[in-house]
Design goal:
about 425 residues; Arc Repressor Mutant, subunit A; Nucleotidyltransferase, domain 5; five-stranded mixed beta sheet; globular
Length: about 425
């Protein structure tokens, strides 16, 4: 059996209080598991009877499991039986993950703790953008058939850059791919035969940090995504801000002090034009560091000891750091999370970002407030799956069973919309 999450129109299991209690118990198990029912009650403030009811429901749904091997005596009565999330390596439910990027995408399989069990990169730089969704969906189906095996499948979390409206799964605008008002979630669902939730990748990473990452992220965070697309997201008290039309996070034209790089918008010094993967790879070609404008080649050259490549990445890190300083001064969050390839691969570049940010910020003097994503190189898969997993942890009893294996073949390729 597979599990479909939060189907539109599905009846809620009980009233709002029961749903909130179930979410509280599940999040407590996420934070503290393995944990006994009594400890859950003490930790979250619910009555033992309420905790017991919700644990029974979560066990029925397959979201948690008992660990009899860890049972301990509790004086009079039955032993205390710890509970933990039913994770993928133990046959528990998993989510498919799909991040659509430029020039490649990431597919993966992720468990209830946000741990990436499998991931692959799918390169499609020579493919027309209109055909990318079908290609990456087919690759995800292959991975799910190989890796999900008999595990219950919750569905697919998907993420993409630029302006995404998660309420109806529409990519409002993605200039690099030429997508405008594209109903991408519906298109992926048709291709996959599985439920799909879609959001912007910067918000997805931020939500992953809140759900699975450092405690400070649950108080307040700003996330800066620097790839071929440059986006941002911010959240307070565990809630990611979307703004009217879900358009928050457009920072590609944030000014970078000291940069005179020309931007397509007609100005100079915009963050995207200065520090995106596209800009850095093109500059690497201009300087003779690599032959083709691919960021992977620049990173490989730097790792192999090419001084010019390392200097270019340090320049980018300093530009990113100046942008981080602006975000720190505007929002003053507990954490700024920076998703940027070189700093994920080598902590020296994160140190460069921190140094530049602290040099230019007027409110922050603590480098530990500037961090890489908790999932490290798995960030894109973990964040994409979180688009599906976050609603599950918010409303677990709305997880509704449906039947059917992972599809064995893709649907006919739909006509694209640009």
């Amino acid at each position: 059996m597979t599990l479909g999450h939060d189907r539109p129109g599905a009846p809620a299991a009980g009233d709002g209080r029961r749903e909130a209690n179930a979410a509280t118990v599940l999040r407590t198990v996420l934070a503290e598991g393995p944990v006994a029912r009594g400890a859950i009650a003490r930790s979250c403030g619910l009555s033992p009877a309420a905790v017991s009811r919700q644990c029974t429901e979560l066990l029925r749904l397959g979201l948690v499991r008992e660990l009899p091997e860890l049972a301990t005596p509790a004086g009079v009565g039955r032993p205390q039986m710890p509970l933990d999330l039913h994770t993928g390596e133990l046959g528990g439910p998993v989510a498919g993950a799909l991040h659509i990027g430029v020039p490649g995408s990431t597919v993966g399989v992720v468990d209830l703790r946000g741990r990436v069990l499998e991931r692959r990169v799918v390169w499609h730089e020579d493919l027309p953008p209109d055909r990318i969704p079908a290609r990456v969906a087919d690759e995800l189906l292959l991975l799910l058939r190989e890796s999900a095996r008999e595990r219950p499948l919750l569905g697919v979390g998907a993420a993409v850059g630029r302006w995404v409206r998660p309420a109806d799964g529409v990519v409002v605008r993605h200039d690099a791919l030429g997508w405008y008002d594209r109903p991408l979630a519906a298109e992926l669902e048709e291709r996959l035969g599985l439920p799909v939730r879609l959001d912007n990748h910067a918000r997805a990473v931020a939500q992953s940090e809140i759900l699975f990452g450092r405690p400070g992220a649950r108080r307040s965070l700003v996330h800066l995504f620097v790839g071929n697309v440059v986006d941002a997201a911010f959240g307070t008290a565990g809630v990611i801000h979307q703004g009217p039309g879900a358009g928050a996070g457009e920072v590609a034209h944030l000014p970078v002090p000291g940069s005179d790089t020309a931007c397509a918008c007609g100005r100079t010094g915009c963050l995207g034009a200065t520090a995106s993967d596209t800009a850095v790879a093109a500059e690497a070609v201009r300087r003779g560091i690599v032959d083709a404008p691919r960021m992977a080649a620049v990173l490989a050259a730097a790792a192999a000891g090419h001084d010019g490549a390392a200097d270019l990445l340090r320049e980018r890190a300093r530009a990113v750091g100046r942008a981080v300083a602006l975000l720190l001064d505007v929002f003053n969050p507990d954490l700024v999370v920076v998703t940027e390839q070189s700093s994920l691969a080598d902590p020296d570049y994160l140190a460069e970002i921190r140094s530049s940010a602290l040099e230019h910020s007027r409110v922050c003097d603590d480098p530990d407030r500037i961090v890489s994503p908790h999932a490290g190189p798995d960030v894109l898969a973990a964040a994409s799956a979180t688009v599906l997993l976050h609603p599950l942890f918010a409303a677990p009893t709305r997880t509704t069973p449906f039947t059917g294996p992972v599809p064995t073949r893709a649907a006919p390729e739909p006509a694209g919309t640009t």
